Amino acid sequence: MDQLGKLREEIDDLDERILELLNRRAKVAMEIGHLKKVLRKPFYVPSRERAIFERLRSINPGPFPSDAIDTVFREIISASLSLEYPMKVVYLGPKATFTHVAALQKFGKLAQLAACKSISSVFDEVASGRALYGVVPIENSNEGAVTHTLDMFLESDLKIIEEHYLEISHDLLVNDGELGDVRRIYSHPQALDQCRRWIEDHLPHAQQVVVTSTARAAQIVADEPNSAAIASRHAANLYKLRVLESNIQDNHENYTRFLVIGRDLLEPTGHDRTSILFGFKDRPGVLGEMLEPFKNRSLNLMKIESRPIKKKAWEYVFFLDIEGHVEDGPIKEAIKELDSFATLLKVLGSFRRAR
Ligand SMILES: C=C(O[C@@H]1C=C(C(=O)O)C=C[C@H]1O)C(=O)O
């Protein structure tokens, strides 16, 4: 046998050993799945998955690229999870939205991913138990909060179980033609805002049409001449569109934070973030007083956001993110103190910080 043939035989032999190990791993994961059912513990444990990725990266001797570890093990873990429990995950669709990309990165290709038409239907599907988890956007580093998601937490009892950051890069997609042929630009309002200056400089006369998602824009443009969509490369591939211009967002530091929502309360990981919402009766100085329980315990507040309560004009709720887990002594005490004078208080979840 020539040298190439011998090396290929060696690869076949190694692949068989990898396959055998994958099956042994799958059997252990199934055993863990049975145990979790008995102990009534959540099947999906993002902090454990993160620890696996981090450990393998740190011990990888190479030359297998460390960047490929996340991709390969994402699918191995996703396959194990599908054996533990056939897990349905819903996301804000249609296919090829940035939320879909986030869901794929979190759950892998083997999870049963299903698109929902709106953020509220993602919440409904999870609350009703038809899906185990949901993925929704919560804020963009340039445009701020996704207010529809914040508002849903007022009505819903679902918990945040994970956060995920995605770098957002917008492309201008067309079916055919050149920049001079574009009369209409379709996209989600946030995407149009994020590319405002680029549009003014390059397509000042094009009509801007707001649609429900960047993926929906790509879907429309696939059938409409003289139009362009601002969407992801992922959408270009799915709807077979041509990328006319890439990276057209005005600020190249453009990230969106997504949340995985579910029904589980997660255990502390030592690197957590807690989200709460609270309301109070308006009077001078009250907001400062509401934050004092945190200040007095030197707790780090990571973010505060207010939203109007729709039921009553000019009344607000505040969304607060605190560094730490709700089971940590000082946070538990601060929340208890806040609860004694708040008119409304809800813990939205404690989850491992992604950064
Ligand atoms: C096997 C487990 O369940 C799931 C699958 C994992 C895996 O395949 O390694 C890791 C975490 C969980 O999301 C576990 O909890 O350890």
TrEMBL record:
> What CDD domains does the annotation carry?
ACT_CM-PDT, PBP2_PDT_1
According to the entry, every stretch annotated as the ACT domain falls at 275-352
Q: Where in the cell is it found?
A: Cytoplasm
Query: What PROSITE patterns would the database entry show?
Result: ACT, CHORISMATE_MUT_2, PREPHENATE_DEHYDR_1, PREPHENATE_DEHYDR_3
**EC number of the protein:** 4.2.1.51, 5.4.99.5
Prephenate dehydratase domain residues: 88-263
Q: Which reaction does it catalyse?
A: prephenate + H(+) = 3-phenylpyruvate + CO2 + H2O; chorismate = prephenate
**A single cellular component GO annotation:** cytoplasm
Domain called Chorismate mutase: residue spans: 1-88
One Pfam family of this chain: ACT
The source's domain of life comes to Bacteria
Q: What SUPFAM superfamilies does UniProt report for this protein, alphabetically? A: ACT-like, Chorismate mutase II, Periplasmic binding protein-like II
Protein's job: Catalyzes the Claisen rearrangement of chorismate to prephenate and the decarboxylation/dehydration of prephenate to phenylpyruvate.
- Protein name per UniProt: Bifunctional chorismate mutase/prephenate dehydratase
Q: Which organism is it from?
A: Acanthopleuribacter pedis
